[in-house]
Design brief:
By secondary structure, the protein is an alpha/beta fold. It has helices at residues 7-31, 41-57, 65-79, 82-98, 107-124, 133-151, 160-181, 183-188, 193-210, 251-258, 283-293, 304-308, 325-333, 349-358, 371-386, 399-407, 415-427, 468-479, 497-510, and strands spanning 238-245, 262-270, 273-280, 295-303, 316-322, 337-340, 363-367, 390-393, 430-436, 441-443, 446-448, 453-457, 460-465, 486-491, 515-520, 528-532. The strands form four sheets. It has a six-stranded mixed sheet. A four-stranded antiparallel sheet has the order 2-3-1-4, with helices on both faces. It has a four-stranded parallel sheet with strand order 6-5-7-8, with helices on both faces.
């Protein structure tokens, strides 16, 4: 059966990989004992693939497959976190570079892509160590080659999917053997965390290609180590990461300069964009090497002992993802930390992680207010929990749900009680919105043209019209229930006061028992947000 890539399936696959790593990140974090037992491999792998999925999700629907792949691999490269995240990004990048995009993909093509991916990963690592993700990647390549060779020159039985499944099976078998190749894994009774992350990605890909569901991994999971007792006293103290703009011929010298400084050296990328990762004691020398090679930026330095140690914090913080100056101001007035985003400048995983770290609180409640941000905040929360911070991510999908939750937050309540109260308020806030179509398309209620007014009810397009006030009334009617007590509307950027007056008139005529609260949110693209409680 011929194997081919298309844009729709590729978009779905990017999200499937991120979802699979999200579901397994706690398990993979707990496996993390090499190279540093900082319990973050699963979180880093998820954040890496989430960055790639974000890059694809932000592109227009008509984007061609080659441009989607380029955006995805660049997103993985620039968003890669940690040693394993950087290696995973290189594996995917090399794999796609070897596949014929837009044409039929043979079994030999699939096998060759695995070989090139494994070779690129080994070449990227300063001192390759067996019993790691590298071993698992090479086993996958060997498995793919064996099956591709069995097809030989046949064109009727050639099946790229079978080759891929063989690669995934070989990777799984190699993962189970990693404790036999590394004493540290054997002592802990675990498989390699980076290798496990690769198997998760391969399983997700196999599911996308064939529908085959992943088989469970049977491996004892330790309690994540947060004491720092397992840190090698003779090993480097710092992790240094940065993106680097540099000519390709400067990388050999960069590797030579960085290799004597420490270990876990990984340099991946190409076409003048590189991601550099190394563990060192001399942070300045590592950065200076980057300056000699080109222009380093987004420099991140982590002190392992500080990362693992629990930092003293006090109080509780509420972090809210907001859009619009008015909504941000409302949240700050309520004592919350507002993380502002727009359609053109969405929140990044790094911003979310930094917000949790900078909150300086031992309890944090997060209101994502966007379905795309829930899992990303969950990953950031997992990392924060390793620092001893209690974090709850309430899965709010709309700004008005966040307002409802924030309105009932009582700092005097215990953490669990506050989370329950806020979760209940958010869940009981029926939400809708009014926006404008920017291009022709098909909605759940029929076609729309550019300039049409679209009414959204609980996240789905439910009304198509030409008048904002009329569509807002239809949305409100769909949200109102006999038990409704209050309607909240948030006016967008350049909001029309006449719409507010028409809603007031509607409520006076049909539901005089319902109160109306109006805020100036200032959000772009949405003339109105609505909520019914």
């Amino acid at each position: 059966m011929a194997l081919a890539l298309d844009a729709t399936a590729f978009r779905a696959w990017t999200q499937l990989c991120a979802d699979a790593l999200s579901a397994t990140r706690a398990e993979i974090d707990a496996l993390n004992v090499f190279p540093v037992p900082d319990s973050d491999t699963g979180t880093n792998a998820f954040l890496t693939f989430a960055a790639g999925a974000e890059a694809v999700a932000g592109l227009p629907a008509e984007t061609e497959l080659p441009d989607l792949i380029r955006a995805y691999t660049d997103g993985l490269l620039t968003g890669a976190k940690g040693n394993s995240g950087v290696i995973l990004s290189q594996l995917v990048r090399a794999c796609f570079r070897s596949l014929p995009i837009g044409g039929r993909i043979s079994s030999a093509d699939v096998a060759l892509s695995f070989v090139h991916a494994s070779d690129a990963a080994y070449a990227a690592v300063g001192e390759p160590v067996e019993g790691t993700i590298l071993t698992v990647a090479r086993a996958a390549a060997d498995g793919a080659q064996r099956t591709a060779a069995a097809f030989g020159e046949s064109t009727t039985s050639d099946d790229g999917r079978s080759v891929f499944n063989s690669a995934a099976d070989a990777a799984r078998e190699a993962l189970e053997c990693t404790p036999q190749q590394m004493e540290r894994l054997a002592r802990a009774g675990v498989v390699d965390a980076g290798g496990r992350a690769l198997v998760v990605v391969l399983d997700a890909t196999g599911q996308a290609l064939t529908g085959r569901l992943p088989q469970p991994i049977t491996a004892r999971l330790p309690v994540p180590n947060t004491s720092g007792d397992d840190l090698d006293p003779h090993g480097p103290s710092y992790e240094v990461m940065y993106l680097l703009e540099a000519d390709d011929d400067a990388i050999t010298g960069l590797r030579a300069a960085l290799a004597p400084l420490g270990d876990s050296l990984v340099v991946v990328g190409g076409d003048r964009l590189w991601n550099v990762h190394v563990h060192v004691d001399d942070v300045g020398a590592a950065i200076e090497a980057g300056l000699t090679a080109g222009r380093p930026y987004r420099i991140a330095v982590t002190h392992f002992a500080e990362q693992i140690a629990r930092r003293p914090r006090d109080g509780r913080a509420v972090i809210v993802a907001t859009t619009g100056d008015g909504l941000s101001g409302l949240c700050r007035e309520s004592g919350a930390v507002a993380l502002e985003f727009t359609r053109d400048e969405p929140l990044s995983s790094a911003q979310m992680a930094a917000a949790l770290s900078d909150a300086s609180a031992d309890e944090v409640i997060v209101l994502p207010n966007n379905p795309r941000y829930v899992k990303l905040f969950e990953a950031a929360a997992q990392a924060a929990r390793h620092d001893g911070i209690r974090v709850a991510v309430i899965p709010t999908h709309a700004q008005v749900q966040g307002l409802a939750a924030l309105a009932v937050h009582d700092p005097g309540l215990g953490f669990d009680e506050a989370v329950v109260a806020m979760s209940s308020a958010a869940a009981h806030a029926q939400h809708g919105a009014v926006t404008l179509a920017t291009e022709p398309g098909m909605t759940m209620v029929g076609p729309c043209e550019a300039g049409d007014v679209l009414g959204v009810v609980s996240g789905d397009f439910a009304v198509v019209g030409r008048d904002i006030a009329q569509v807002a009334g239809d949305v409100l009617e769909a949200l109102l229930s006999p038990s409704a007590e209050m309607v909240t509307i948030v006016l967008g950027e350049g909001g029309d006061a006449a719409v507010e007056q028409q809603i007031q008139a509607y409520l006076r005529a049909h539901r005089p028992d319902v109160d109306l609260v109006v805020y100036d949110g200032g959000q772009e693209n949405y003339p109105l947000f609505l909520a019914v409680e």
